[in-house]
Amino acid sequence: SSTKNNTTTDKHKSNTPTLPMPSNGTLASPNWPEPTCVTKCDVACRKDQGNTIKANEFMDDDTVLRQKMEKVASLIKQSKCCTAYTGAGLSKAAGIADYATKATNSVTSTAAVPKLVSAFDAQPTYAHQCLVELEKKGFLKQYVQQNHDGLPQKAGYPQWKMNEIHGAWYDPSNPVVKFGGNLRDDLFTWMLQMEKDVDLCICLGTSLSGMNADRMANTPAERANSDSDSGRRKKNKKSKGWAHPALGTVVINLQETPLDDQCAVRVWAKIDDAFRILAELLDLHPQPYKIMLPSACDDVFEVPYNSKGVLDTSVRMKLNLKDGQTLRVAPEEASNFDEYCKVASKDAAGHYICQFGKGTRRRFGKWWVTAALQGMVPAIPVVNAEPEVWKATEENQKELERWRNSEFLQPYDPVTDPIPQTKQLETPTNVSSKMAAMIAGMEAKLKMDGVGR
Prior knowledge:
The protein is α/β, with parallel strands linked by helices. It contains 9 helices and 22 strands. The strands form 7 sheets. It has a 6-stranded parallel beta sheet with strand order 7-6-5-8-11-12. It has a 5-stranded antiparallel beta sheet with strand order 19-18-17-16-20, with no helix packed on it. The longest helix is centred in the N-terminal third of the chain and has 17 residues. The radius of gyration is 22 Å and the shape is globular.
């Protein structure tokens, strides 16, 4: 189905009971044993979404885990358009709770998980950092993000390769989409193209409970299985309408999902543990980065966008983000198109805080500014209320080239040079009170304006 409703029901909508035995995937070695159930839980992982699969947790032994990740590494090397599709389980190690974990003794509930004052303080996990390295090495081509937390971008993942289909805490023009709500037109259209392009999906930390965006994992799995011959992929077979022959889907998750018996490789592990092995196999060198804005700009930036916020290298527009400046939501597809806000301040990490009316505050992530300076995103979320635009000069064009050759990511040591943290409770105003209660260290009740995944 191509409808843009967020909770489109299809044959993958999981109202089925727990599978009789955990699957290792269609490419599994016959020598791989079943994973061990490490946490028993009789509660459905996502009953609210019609998913009655129990929230039991399973793990592979170390030998099998390594063998599986060797096969995953091989698939990634073969892939022409490897795509990440991630859910809340990816961010759990960062201190942001998920919905699907129900067991009080979950293996993910450890002392190593940060206790956050604010969800905005969350920092990327090891797996987030590895995804950035996969992109830098040319392995990872695109990314569909269910989460709203901005952790991939904080890790250094390019905004222009990221589809935040369910809304974003750091994009004022992309409020969180409620369950049952409609997905944003332009992001939905982009996702449909991504679905055609993907040949290998790396699916991380999602219960696959029937969200519309689950097509990103379901479709390559279906295509690979329909193109298979006794479980082996036919070489050079390309179905009509698809960009590449499908390799399938890799699912890395502790809990069972509806796709387990159809995915190419099913990895039962903590995501960070799996990625430590993958980093070794693919010679990745993940590290934490800070996003650095050019201090000489003093919060006023000349960007190659027109008054509607659309990329146009023949002009320049002044994007003034000083405190007190009035901004307008620019994308016509945005649910809050043409709404106005004011730059209230910056948060502890230097992201801009936009005040909408008396209550709602939304972040404008620093990575949007650096992407705009480089002219890399097709459109920007906000423009000034009365934008100043002029025809680009020769010097403007030279400056654009300088920005495009600039590196805004700076490696840092989080121990000796930590990212500043929020000193008092502040949570996103565009998430539900239920989600807020689940975020580690939070005790505030929030006005409902969407939910997490």
